[in-house]
Amino acid sequence: MPKMKSVKGAVKRFKVKKSGKIKRGTAYRSHILTKVDGKHHRQMRSSKHVDTVDAKNIKEMIN
After folding, report:
1. Domains of the chain by residue range
2. DSSP, res 35
3. Residues contacting residue 52 through CB under 8 Å, at least 6 positions apart
4. Which stretches are transmembrane?
5. 8-62 CATH fold
6. Confidence (pLDDT) at 3
């Protein structure tokens, strides 16, 4: 049986760390950020981890 192809959109959006957790970017950062207060804007810079519920599906898409 042939290997499953990875979902290229998921490969570009997620990275698997050494610990096995999946790193993702923050949503709502594209435009119209003048209305967002400075604290929230700074917090959106940092990357987040994917929830454990979604991690299994994302790992299947990446591999």
Report:
1. 8-62
2. T
3. none
4. none
5. Factor Xa Inhibitor (4.10.410)
6. 87
